[in-house]
Amino acid sequence: MSESQFRKPTSRRAFLGGSAAAAVAVGAGAARAAGPDPLITEVQDWAAGLGEGVDATPYGLPIRFEDDVIRRNVEWLTADTISSINFTPIHALDGTITPQGCAFERHHSGAIELRKEDYRLMINGMVETPLIFTYEDLTRFPRENHVYFCECAANSGMEWAGAQLNGAQFTHGMIHNMEYTGVPLRTILEEAGYNGEGKWVYVEGADASSNGRSIPMEKALDDVLVAFKANGEALRKEHGYPVRLVVPGWEGNLWIKWLRRVEVTDAPVESREETSKYTDTLADGTSRKWTWEMDAKSVVTSPSPQSPIPHGPGPLVITGLAWSGRGAITRVDVSKDGGRTWETARLARAGEARALTRFYLDTEWDGSEMLLQSRAMDETGYVQPSKAALREVRGENSIYHNNGIQTWWVRESGEAENVEVS
Length: 422
Ligand SMILES: Nc1nc2c(c(=O)[nH]1)N[C@H]1C(S)=C(S)[C@@H](COP(=O)(O)O)O[C@H]1N2
Ligand SMILES: [Mo]
Fold this sequence. Notes:
Layout: H1 12-22, E1 23-26, E2 30-33, H2 38-41, E3 120-125, E4 131-134, H3 135-138, E5 144-151, H4 168-172, E6 175-184, H5 185-191, E7 200-205, E8 213-216, H6 217-220, E9 225-230, E10 233-234, E11 244-246, E12 259-265, E13 280-281, E14 287-288, E15 297-302, E16 314-323, E17 329-335, E18 343-344, E19 346-347, E20 357-365, E21 370-378, H7 387-394, E22 407-410, E23 416-419
Parallel strand pairs: 3-12
Antiparallel strand pairs: 1-2, 3-4, 5-6, 6-9, 7-8, 7-12, 9-10, 9-11, 13-14, 15-16, 16-20, 17-18, 17-21, 19-20, 21-22, 22-23
Residues 103-108, 150, 152, 176, 205, 207, 209, 211, 238-239, 252-253, 255-258 line the site of ligand MTE.
């Protein structure tokens, strides 16, 4: 757009300085201007010419002012980016649905490109009729829509030994929450003549790693989906285009991307991904195995280290996310004093089973420092534990399933830091 012929404020910076000095804080954070505000009294660039036409953006990206709302990786963790992980910018999102474009990725051998036309899904093993489905075949079965979170079991895994990564994106960002469209795995197993004999399914992807995992038949017949859409559109390449498995409430590693085969078996396969990985060794040398369900967990997303408080004392919205692999979140409490006292937060909507729940604590900040925490409860009565309580049971050798209570030390300046309280 060309320069406007109308008078503009000399510079945006000068304007911001002047405005801040002229504004008087009133009531709920609103400002009463002491002098004329050029943003109101002057014709601005955006009103002095034409905007873009509808042919400019056939498929839209976020406006450039939001270009810091992106996936990030942790460099020391990501020496090899092919077999690696990045993190959802949960500190900058609101609501519960994660846009695919910034939803964390975890690949064992990189994100592959697989055309729908080349897609095949094989059902074999203990079924009457082994079958092969094309993508189009899958779209002819009755389908369902559900919102579920997908959390990598290693989410918060770097925090077992103590507070380490400085930001909710890094400590809790191996999670996303989408609306999936797909066919129940049960429907497809029945189509192949599953007769109740096989007790497990072994599921694997078309990528070089295959990421094979065993799933007990009870779960496979319950709520597992063979999904081909997320948030209304095709899965993105990095999330398994054209078809991925959705295993509600269970660790992300079971959510096979580029799903190519489901084998009905009478016993688990004991693959790499379910023995040497995704198993936690306890202090006494024994190991926890088959830890499929993700325990109830929560985190304050703002304020947090990447989302400091940008204003002084007065009204403050504290917000965060809570979830449980066992069902719906029923309550979230927030503490400002490191867990000594708790206030019950407001849930934006009633908790839904195995999906993210957004909570808010609309509060008055007196400007003093806070040790902010959140604590989730789910419909089974489970209460999110402290990190100390978790370590007592699990020791410090674990990587996976760290659902301990997170603490942010919020300073008087509004800046926040990852800490632990004892
Ligand atoms: N085929 C295949 N499926 C896979 C993986 C993989 O590397 N290959 N990674 C798994 C892991 S460990 C996780 S946490 C989730 C991550 O899903 P996302 O990349 O869509 O966030 O996918 C799982 N499914
Ligand atoms: Mo994972």
